[in-house]
Amino acid sequence: MNFVQPIRDKNKLEEMKEELRKRGTRDFLLFYVGINTGLRVSDIVKLKYDDIRDNSCNMKTHITIIEKKTGKLKKFPIYNGLYTELEKYTKNMSEGQYIFKSQQNSNRPITTVQAYRILKNTSLKIGLEEIGTHTMRKTFGYWHYQQYHDIAILQTIFNHSSPSITLRYIGINQDEIDKSYEGFSL
Question: So which residues are the catalytic ones?
Answer without folding.
Answer: 40, 69, 134, 137, 160, 169
